[in-house]
Amino acid sequence: MKQLIALYEQQSEHQVTLISGSTGKLYAQILNGAPFDAFFAADTIRPQKLENKKHIVPASRFTYAIGKIVLWSPDAGLVDKQGQIIQAMTFQHLAIANPKLAPYGRAAQQVIESKGVWKQLQSKIVRGENIGHTYHFVKSGNAALGFIALSQIKADKTINQGSYWLAPDTLYDPIEQQAVQLSNTVAVSDFFRFVQTQTAEQVIRDFGYDVR
């Protein structure tokens, strides 16, 4: 999102202030009256709920990205290309985002369940509030490895450092990410139009997402 904002501001008179947080927490803040103009969620559930509650500009909801999940470690020799380390459990801590709050956390749980070791791994799993916290757990060494977004190691240029396994998208529900307008201003409408241009979509792809 930072790269999209920077590109947008280069060609627009409008400025964008980014406020980051878990999708669940930002959703709760919006319901409690937080003065946000737009909401870029990491799922479809909260944008749909806001639409049902008539909290959004009509017809503004759209899918801006489809996320991909990877198992990543700064240790170049730790994660194999088939993700078998999950079943081997030869590590002390595995980080995932909180499945109750974060779509990437739910996806991580589904991948682990597909390997048949969700219950066995409970004592080794550490949960981040969101995908950003989860990445920090792993990068800082507080967890040996973790399920994060492919976009994170692409954005941070660590994709060629350490080791990772790109989980097949057949193992988890699509991480479809939607955005909604919360205020009907010229600036917000202009930014939403920009995000749906081919230029913006290419940036989104370059950072490890799919687009519709």
TrEMBL record:
One Pfam entry for this protein is SBP_bac_11
Which Gene Ontology terms cover its molecular function? metal ion binding; molybdate ion binding; tungstate binding
Residues annotated as binding molybdate? T23, I131
Keyword flag Nucleotide-binding? no
Keyword list (alphabetical) reads: Metal-binding, Molybdenum, Signal
- Enumerate the transmembrane spans: none
The keyword Kinase belongs to this UniProt entry's keyword annotation: no
Looking at the record's lineage, which domain of life comes first?
Bacteria
Q: For this entry, list what GO says about its biological process.
A: molybdate ion transport
Mind telling me which NCBIfam families this protein's record contains?
A: modA
Q: How does it assemble?
A: The complex is composed of two ATP-binding proteins (ModC), two transmembrane proteins (ModB) and a solute-binding protein (ModA).
Family statement = Belongs to the bacterial solute-binding protein ModA family.
The name this protein carries in UniProt is Molybdate ABC transporter, periplasmic molybdate-binding protein
Q: Which gene codes for it?
A: modA
